[in-house]
Structure formats: structure tokens, C-alpha cells
User: Fold these one by one.
Assistant:
Number 1:
Amino acid sequence: MRNKPIAASSSRSVRATARLTP
């Protein structure tokens, strides 16, 4: 159950990084 919240956070981090990258 601790991996579920972490996965959601990772998805948001990936989206934020995609915005910074071209």
C-alpha cells in the first residue's frame, strides 16, 4: 500500500520533468 502513493507521486514528477525538457 505504500507503493501506490509513491507511484502517483512519481507520475506527477515525470510530468513536471517532461515540461522542463523539450
Number 2:
Amino acid sequence: MTLKDFITQCTLVFKSFEHDVTIIQSKSSLWQFTTNSRRNKKKYAVMVAPAFSKVKSLIKIAKKKLPPETRLVVVTNTFTDADNDMSAKEDFTLLTLETLNRYGQEMLDLKNRSSDGTIHIVDGDNIIDQVINKEKDF
């Protein structure tokens, strides 16, 4: 899978959670896109890295450059327990594309069951917060 395909898959999931997605065109940016929740205005800067080891050294720099009230999210193919510990210590979210896709599919299934396409059973922002923020407020 190319990096472009990886980014496309990630953005589709965020869009299914009713987030506005802005692809960053600048090569100097450390993240590939930002998202804003339409409902609760939470913001995320998303780094997409098929191999976490390639961006690990950029995390501290990225955190310093984050816009106010924006949480850093790193989406990768796999990560180790040590990488997960690092994400907790450095206060960013690390998750796999598989996890993100699984929650995205659940959201689409819920929308498809609804007659008007809106979510009545569950609030999409709460699900994305659980996945991305690990239920942390910023």
C-alpha cells in the first residue's frame, strides 16, 4: 500500500465520524492532515506512518508545533508495547490503521441501520474520542 492509499483510508474513516478533514499540502508539515469534529469542535493533527520507527524521532517536534487545543494522532500499521508506552508518556495517541478501520466500519454500519443516515444509537464523536483520545480531554 502506498502512503497516499494509507492517508486516503485514514481520512475516509474520519469523514465517516463526521469530521471535516483538511489535507496538508506543505512538505514542511509533520502531519498529513487535520480534522475538526463538526459537533464538539475537537481537533486532531494526524501523522500517517506505515512504519512508526520512521516518525518516532519527530514526535516531540510535532507536539511543539501543534496548534492550540489540537491532539496529535499517529496512525501506523503496527507498534510495540514500548511504542505504546511512549505514546502515553509523550501524551499523543498511537493507533493502527486496522483499529481505525474497524471503528470506521462500525460507524458506517450504525449509519446504514438508521433510516435518515444520522446516528441515533450512538454519538459518533464519543466513539472517535474513545479511539483517538483514549477518553482523555485536552
Number 3:
Amino acid sequence: MELVNGSMWPTIREAMMCETHKYVAVVNNFADTEPIVQKLQLLGALNVSDLHRVHKENYEERLRRRGDKFPPQKEPDSETKLVSQSAIAERLKSRAQEELQSLFPPDYDAAGQFIDNKEKQNEDENYENEVPKIKKLLEPSQMRPIEEDLKSIKVDENRIVKPSSGLTSGALQEFIPATKLKGLDDYILESDPYQHYKEGSEFQVRVEPESTIEFPEHLKIFAFEEGNNSRFPSPRRSLNGNFDYYLMDGASILPVLALGLKPGDTMLDMCAAPGGKSLVALQTLYPQILVCNDSKLSRLHHLEDVMNEYLGNLDHWERRLFLTNKDARAIDDENVYTKILVDVPCTTDRLNLHTEENNLFKPSRIKERLLLPELQTEILLQALKIMPVGGTVVYSTCSLSPIQNDGVVQMALKKCWEETQSTMIVKDLYEALAPLRCIYRFGNDFGLKYGNIVVPTPKHNWGPLYFCKIVRVN
């Protein structure tokens, strides 16, 4: 991780290793809001909407004093990009060398032999012809059918137990050579996800700056200031029976803000459980229709419980709120949803650091973890396909992995162009997020091409969370 996150990694690691991290309190507009707001203010919490407004006004005033008509655009840092690309290349090389070494005895330095050969060939006139051979050796090994080897090998038939010999105890102990390896089709190399990242790296994506993020008028979110890790009390029921506020990681509100919800929008949350982001969207009072989908029925039941506790009787929401249980890749309602949130399943880096049960990094779930980028790409691709012209998709994860973040966005946009010829634009939110830097630490020096990432630090201990805004133009 230090190769990817650079000098910030020790700080990020320190924050993520803390078992408790910061939350924000989202005021429930379907309860008695005034006493709730007063209660949170007495705790010393600050209204994030007020912070955003004040810092936005100050930021715009500074621009006017400098005489800038528009906010300065983020200049691509060539040095940062080179460092990021070289880090990924170094990671790929290291992974390939590890797999190569696994084919040799422990005391044999396979990678070192090839490096020594490379240094000797620097003085050789035919060095250029040898470079492809060295690169080929460092590439992940290619699987081939076992039948090819069976045609060329010579089997010692003296060790084969023939039916005519009878099933004696001695015959049962004879060695019988294997003719087929079970499970070989399901085997996945650790380097496969990195190959997935490299596949779409040459595809060009149009990126346009977006200067502002509007904070919805009715959305009331409270947080403690920088360095204050105080905890909010557990939510309580108000006079009408609904809970007074919802506690969630402070970074999780940003994908909803990035959607840019407007009154009358039709919104789809493709992977909605446990329901926090969907609830924030409803607290804006903007969506005319909200569809909350999740592929797992148990998680959908949990989401339903959350909605019941904060919205009251869901019968009153029968024409505005819909809960569906489908594979997100199978949702085919084209040109219906103006705003789509794609909060995909991911490695949830912080959670897996502090839980043993169902941990995605345990040996029994290696295959599932390695296939995550492929699943994430398919879900995002489906969202892009069903989005109408002028619609918005926001993709988000709770991971620091560049493959699950920018890598998935790149691959999904590439496949969408190849399959539909649709033109998508990625919105650069660097300047739009400027008023929120008072409470968030953004990883602007991570060499990201498309999205933004909130990184945890001891003073701003929420996240990690990556999000990317995509708009369809034709």
C-alpha cells in the first residue's frame, strides 16, 4: 500500500487501525427536527451545511480578489502521475516475480538470475532481441490443457494396475498417475486483477471540471470539528415513533451530494443495503421515486427495517419508495432513472481490519476477492447502459485499491463505448470539493485520473471512500 499511497500511508494506517472512527448525525426530517437540531448543537456538533456555505463564500471571495473569473482548474501533476504509474508497474513486476519464484526451490533466486542476465545483456549487441524474452518470463504463466502434456509424456505402464492382476492388497498400494486436475478451471492467479487494471489503461476518457456541489436545503448533517473524536449518543425515538437521527461514516454522504439531486428526480440505488445512502437521499426531500435494490434478501430485510424506523409506516410510501431484490447486473430499466448510485461490493478495507467473521481476506474467500473488480465493472457497466442522456451515475467504494477505483471506472467506460457507442463524461470534482476540505482529507496526490478519495487521518478519521461522477451526453 505504501507504493500506491506514498508518504501518507503511515498516517492512513494509524487512523484505520483505530477501532472507533468518526461519524456524522443525519437529522431525520420525518421526526420533530427542531428539538433534534438543538440537541446536537448542545453536544458541540457543527452543521455541515453551514460549514459548506461559509467556506464556499470565502473561497469565491478569494477568487474574486485574485480576479479569477472561474475557479482554477486542477493541473495534471506529471510527476505525481509518473510516480503512481511506476508504483503500479513495480507492483505488477513484484507480483510476477513472486509467482515465478514459487516455481523454483526456496534457495534458488529465480528473479535474481534474470536480473543478472539482463545486466550482462546490456553490453551485448543483441540485447534488444533479448528484452521481449525477459519480459515474457516475468509475465503471469499461461494455463494450458493437461491433454497436451499427456500426448508427449511416456507413462511407466509397469506401475499401472491392470484388471487382470486382481484386486490384491499389494495392487491397491500401487501408484496410478493422474490424468486430470480437478478444480484447475476455477484457479485464479493473484496477478489477474492487475491484468484487469492494465486492459483498459490506453482508453481515452473525456474529463470536464465541475466547479460546485450544491448542498440540499433540507439536508441537515452534524459533525464534530477537526481533531474532535467525540461520539454521538445512540439515536432515540421522537414523539411520532421515528428515530431522531441516523449515524454513519461522514464520507458516505459525499456520493449522494455528488449525484446533484434535484426535485422530481427518479433515483436508483443499485446496491442499497444497509440503506444509509438511500436514507440520506430521502432526507433531501428531492427524489420523486427511489428504488432501493440489493441482491441479497437478508440485507434487503435489514434495509427495510431501517426505512421503517426512520420513515414510519412504509404503506404511505408505496408510490415513492420501492425495495427490489435483483442482481444489479440484471436491472434493465432503460431511460428510467435520472440519477443512479452504484455503491458496489468491495473489500471494505476498514471493516476487514477489525473483524474476523466473514472477512474477505481469509483464505476461503480468495477467489471471491480476486473476482471483485470484474463484478464491480459489470455492475457499473449495466448502470451506464440504462442511464438516459443527461443522467448521472456516481460510482463508489470503501476501498483504497486503485484497481477497484479508477481501474473499474476505466474498464466500464471502455466496454460501454465498445458495446453501445455512448459518450460519457467524467466530472472532475476537485474544485467543487474545496469548501469541504475543512472536515475531509482528500487524497489529491494519489495520481487519480477520474474520481476523488477521502482518506482517513487521525484528525479526520472517516473513510476511506472513493467516488466518481459520470454523465451521459449522447
